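Worked Example 4.2. Consider the chain below.
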Amino acid sequence: QVQLVESGGGLVQAGGSLRLSCAASGRTVSMGWFRQAPGKEREFVATIYWIGGATAYADSVKDRFTISRDNAKNTVYLQMSSLKSEDTAVYYCAARSNKVIGPYDSWGQGTQVTVSS
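Applying the procedure from the previous section yields the following structure tokens:
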């Protein structure tokens, strides 16, 4: 497991943009973002693999969100654009430290994103 520190959440108007960052304290093989809105279950948002840089997105954010990485800084970013009120949630960073597939073994503390309409 590694420690993950998220930053970049906040309040933004609908249609606006926000960028989240997540720095890992150690080696990871893939990292991703999940979110949990009030009264709802945590859901997958996006993931990126260190080797090859392959990405995957939830249908609800495809073409609006972009996940990227900085290998040198061991940091992953989530650029969110055209934000909607339904994007309001606590966003969690997650990482797989050893295996490319399977459950994520490390989680961040979460950062609140609020989109006002």
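The longest strand covers residues 89-96. The mean pLDDT is 95. Compare this with Example 4.1 before moving on.
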